[in-house]
Design a protein that fits this description.
Number of strands: 8
Helix content: 10-25%
Number of domains: 1
Shape: globular
Distance between the termini: 17 Å
Radius of gyration: 13 Å
Largest sheet: 6 strands, mixed
Structural class: mainly beta
Order of helices and strands: EEEEHEEEE
Strand content: 35-45%
Strand order of the largest sheet: 2-1-5-6-7-8
């Protein structure tokens, strides 16, 4: 699974947390069969909420733009389709706001932020 956070590949200690892009911390979790790096357990919990809300089981890619304060716009792709939505988390990484959205398509590519 390819994870992109604010335009940069993420999900390993070298590339950054799969949710926020931070390189500090030392938390790993297996999500959708892949071992991903997170700076903390709360980012891992938030990422799992993104996966769960997407409704896609076999995920090829997740593109995340935004941050804790402004919320995040996500495009999750897999199974020949994409799920686009806005999500915001509370202090304990529970979903505090969620809405499905359609984002503009990049010409010649699939759905993207």
């Amino acid at each position: 699974m390819k994870v992109t956070v604010n335009g940069k590949v993420a999900g390993s200690k070298e590339s950054g947390c799969a949710l926020c892009g931070a390189t500090w911390g030392n938390y790993y979790d297996v999500i959708c069969g892949e071992r991903l790096f997170f700076c903390c357990d709360l980012c891992a919990k938030g990422f799992k909420n993104i996966v769960d809300r997407s409704g896609i089981e076999n995920i090829n890619s997740i593109e995340i733009k935004g941050n804790y304060y402004s919320g995040r716009r996500c495009v999750v792709s897999g199974e020949g389709r994409a799920s686009s939505f806005f999500i915001r988390f509370s202090d304990d990484a529970e979903v505090s706001e969620f809405r499905e959205e359609q984002f503009p398509r990049k010409q010649g590519h699939g759905q993207s932020l």
